[in-house]
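User: Quick sanity check before I run a bigger batch. Here is a single chain. Can you write out its predicted 3D structure?
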Amino acid sequence: MKINLSLFKISSSIISLLVMVDIFTFTLVSNAVENKKVTADCRTIPDVADNSTVKISPVDDEPSSGVIISKKGNIYTVLTVAHGVKSQDILDYNPLKIQSRYDEYNVIAGQLLDEGVKSLDLAIIRFESSKNYIPIIFGSSQQTQKWDKVTILGYPITSTNRTGQPQIYPLETTLIEINANRGKGYDMSYAGNGWEGMSGGAIINDCGRLLGIHGRGDSLGTIKNEESNEEMSLRGPFAAGIPIDYFVNLLPLPNLKISEIAINIKPNFNSLVSEDVQKSFIDLGLSELESNNLGSAISYFTQAIQKDSKNHLAYSYRGLSYSLIGDKQQAIKDYSRAIELNSNLSNARYNRGLILSRDLKQYDEALRDFEELIKRNPRDADALFERGNIYFQKGNKQQALNDYTTAIRLNKQLGDAFYNRGIIYHQKKKNEQALEDLRRARDIFASQENLKKFGRANDAIMDIQGGVKK
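Assistant: Done. Predicted structure follows.
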């Protein structure tokens, strides 16, 4: 997904947030990402556990764990251990199930990486879902050292919560060795216990960055699960994982490019950072934002803010990034800080108003944003259109009609304004004017190759024509 960096407004090419007036109701159309908790610079362990970690269940073998590393449309890619899945499972697809904390999916494709010269005990598998999970951000195992604290995330075989859903366990441990040379890529050794079923789980640092994939441990016997009273195998005193750098070095793979994963390796900074370096954080963030690597973009913009707490552009761009991952509250905070630092940031004000009106339903606050935009630029057709939507929601259809008319005069390609005005005309029993606007909207949507909006406009025309004939 490409983002128009020249505007930095949340438009239909980024998130479908256009308000459309239905024949009988005013309906909000939104494909926005669900709200996910992501902190300013790091992801919390519960966040990575809930939104990036999955359970993998072969048809005739013990389950294992995996971590979501990429999203492309509704297709998610999961990285796991090869010994947790079988080639037959991947070839047959359906027998292999992927289970998040909330839902279960069939595997639709996959690839084993445990053969060839660079043989690693890894596999990638894919599933399709309309839900919004957050791919993990890659760190670098090369930037770890002995005695670093890390956490393993995975699903022990017999662990469930009180509702019967699989229970994710976070296991904190300490790195012992990075180049253990155990074969199949298991060169990361660490202390602590691991349970069966957690193979394939993510090894993360305290910032939620992916450092490796957990996969091996020594069995010491069994213990009982406190909730289910069932026995589970205990592993230790040492376990092993595959450094994530090994996987990155294999890229690109079929249907997985390196640009499709979020990589953030936090550099070592000198005590003084030049303005050019600060600017480079913005440039790097914009590059990640344009490539839809939102986690990395947020990290770069955060680094720019850490070096210059009054960098209004960094706050504005980070607000956009947060909005795109669904963290609307954090987006509002960043937009507000950007506007506080520079009141002329029209795009930050526009985006804040959009979230306030569309997502949070705080119409009075949103109205102030759009009125300020119109005051500063009376020819802002987008702001006029959005103010018209708010007036409609507040029951002032005549004012909404006036704003739509002004927006159309300023931008005759604003199909949504034609559509919404046409619906209001229909509700006012002015069907001739309604049909004229709806036909114009249909033509615009056709030229934009927007089949969904084209169909909606065409249906409205047919409904009105059918009612007139009756």
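The chain has 14 helices and 17 strands.

User: Great, the batch can go ahead then.
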